[in-house]
Amino acid sequence: MEKGQDSNDRRAGEVRSAVEAATWAPSVHNTQPWLFSFGGDRISLRADGDRRLGVADPDGREMLISCGAALFTLRVAVRDLGYEPEVRVLPDPDRPHLLADLYLGARTRSRSDDNSRLFEQIRRRRTHRGAFKPEPVGDALLTLLRQEAQREGAMLRVLEDQYSRNAVAALTVAAENMHHLSPSYAGELARWAPSPGSTRQEGVPESAYPREAPPTDPHFPARDFARGHGWGTEPSILDWLEEPVAGVACTLSTKEDRPVDWLRAGQAMQRVLLRATQHGDVAAAFHTQALEVPGLRELIQTRFCAGDHPQMVLRLGTVGDKFETVRRPVEQVLTEES
Ligand SMILES: Cc1cc2nc3c(=O)[nH]c(=O)nc-3n(C[C@H](O)[C@H](O)[C@H](O)COP(=O)(O)O)c2cc1C
């Protein structure tokens, strides 16, 4: 009896640490739109619909990409504990908010070094905003990252020529302007952009973006988290280089556009980001504004993704200092099933 209790306690501690790791996944506006529960040898992941961006993300596509990123992180963390997990995605059509059940499965005797390397990147990975360092992202790494996306059922495409890059950057400018015209969008952004000194552990704090960033060529505009208040961190040396480096502009897309594909895209994205972090501190800057405007998303689909559905627009590049980020404590997102 005592022994059984000990092993239950140990398992609860392990689940807690794996879920804690999963919460370090990226999420749109750092909404952290996930809830976890566990009972027996199962960890369940649910979307927290109250945290969906009702204006920017009415279908919950970005919410599910965020949850997919958390699911991939959970898979890595559980493997790092020595388990061989089995994942059932969207296991119950009557409960669409139940996104995945992860069964811990048997403990394997040896941990994989490759998985451990991914695990080590979970807390090191950060979203970048602004220009990159001049060190280019090598072709070998880009090939590896494309393969990593494919392993999760998504496609990472580099915008190879300057006209494609310029066009997608210009569509991002158009989307950013359209967002500025929408008071409801501005209100929603304000909710997730806490003012300096705030103790909130969600949203995008001023320590996560530069105060000023000179335009890169082409210029992919950032989300306006500061909203004219002059918030943001002091410009880093990178932002004052003579030629601010835009990095490698890419899209991440899927063949279909259903909730299961959004979860796939999120898992693929996080696999790519962790692998990139592992190789020479390559990070991503995201520019998903145009994907929130249906006509612009369609244009990116047909002209730049060969008909596949774009899920993310990002730039990859080398970073030095990293921005900061915040997370809610694991207790707020994890419950034990009775
Ligand atoms: C679906 C999705 C869309 C995102 N879009 C943007 C974006 O357009 N601009 C941006 O600066 N960050 C974007 N992000 C990054 C989040 O803001 C970031 O993950 C969050 O603030 C947490 O910070 P961290 O990634 O450094 O941990 C996006 C993330 C996700 C998952």
From TrEMBL:
InterPro entries: Nitroreductase-like, Nitroreductase/BluB. Transmembrane segments: none annotated. Signal peptide: none annotated. It comes from the Bacteria. GO terms for molecular function: oxidoreductase activity. Residues 192-226 are annotated as: Disordered. Gene3D superfamilies: NADH Oxidase. PANTHER family: NAD(P)H NITROREDUCTASE RV3131-RELATED (PTHR23026:SF123), NADPH NITROREDUCTASE (PTHR23026). NCBIfam families: Rv3131_FMN_oxido. This is Nitroreductase.
